[in-house]
Design goal:
- About 35% of the residues lie in helices and about 20% in strands.
- It contains eight helices and nine strands.
- By secondary structure, it is an alpha/beta fold.
- It has one domain: UDP-N-acetylmuramoyl-L-alanine:D-glutamate ligase.
- Strands 3-2-1-4-5-6 form a six-stranded mixed sheet, sandwiched between helices.
- It starts with a strand and ends in a 22-residue tail after the last helix.
Length: about 260
Amino acid sequence: MLTKALTIAGSDSGGGAGIQADLKTFTAFGVYGSSVITALTAQNTIGVAAVHSVPPEFVRAQLVAVLSDIGADAAKTGMLCSAATICEVARAVRDFGIDKLVVDPVMLAQSGATLIEAEAIAALNAELVPLALVLTPNVPEAERLTETRIATASDQRIAARALVERGARAVLVKGGHLEGDDAVDVFYDGRIFHELRAARIETRHTHGTGCQLSAAITAQLARGRPLAEAVARAKRFISVAIAGGLDVGQGAGPANPSAWREPPD
């Protein structure tokens, strides 16, 4: 049977993040990918030059078109610019009974460009976080969602617990922005904390890593893997993708999903 995953996110014209990175990652895991585009970005390896938001009613039209026909074994969200778009996505998740939802709360581009309206953060917390099977913020995103400072793994645990208390069934607080020889992600399944460690790779080619990691989790969930196993395998995947990062353009090139070779079950 064909395994299907859906990404609901923005388009990166440079191909390293967003919809483009998600679809490449789905393919790396042998999963058929469909997409709902929420925003267009004029973007390259140096930064984001412009953002054009897709009207919420057209986001809704895409969601209905895909889910009423193709369906999805799992879905993920990425760049959702406005509160209205977030509400439309949440409505479709409820209407079509999407249970395996990965919410990547994209707020800032790697270059520092803001990708979400300020009032949309409240909508994200209220509408989408409670629908998430797993929420995957990096440290700056977790800080904005919880309004707390995160500097240590202990702080990551506090933020993860707070986000589960808001309704997410599980949370992965990614630690790539913190100092240390290892990149430490904290995964909380609502009962137990797990620390996922990987040696930090010295490279500037890390564009799209958050998108690719959440897409890898989504692909694994679509294939029927338990959440903890999907997260652990996605962590291994992103280390391989970063190690194989592509020297494209003049700035930060993307991590490379094609470097991953899916091991047999």
